[in-house]
Design goal:
By secondary structure, the chain is an all-beta fold. The protein has no helices and 7 strands. Helix content is 0%, strand content 49%.
């Protein structure tokens, strides 16, 4: 997989999330992946639903609260 498309956001800019909370789904070549928060923090999405993102590029910032 070289890139993926954001198919759904489950959080919005400014939401407070906890470790393991579902953030978004990304669709790759063969499947859709669910991405969870690795840390507690405040969400700042960097891409919109429907945008395609290269592997290794940050999709969301999580700032401590």
């Amino acid at each position: 997989m070289q890139e993926g498309t954001i198919v759904e956001w489950y959080v919005e800019d400014g939401d407070i999330v906890t470790v393991g909370q579902k953030l978004y789904d990304v669709e790759g070549d063969k499947t859709t992946f669910e991405v969870e928060s690795p840390v507690d923090g405040v969400v700042k999405p960097l891409f919109a639903k429907g945008e395609t993102v290269a592997v290794g590029v940050a999709v969301v910032e999580l700032q401590s609260h």
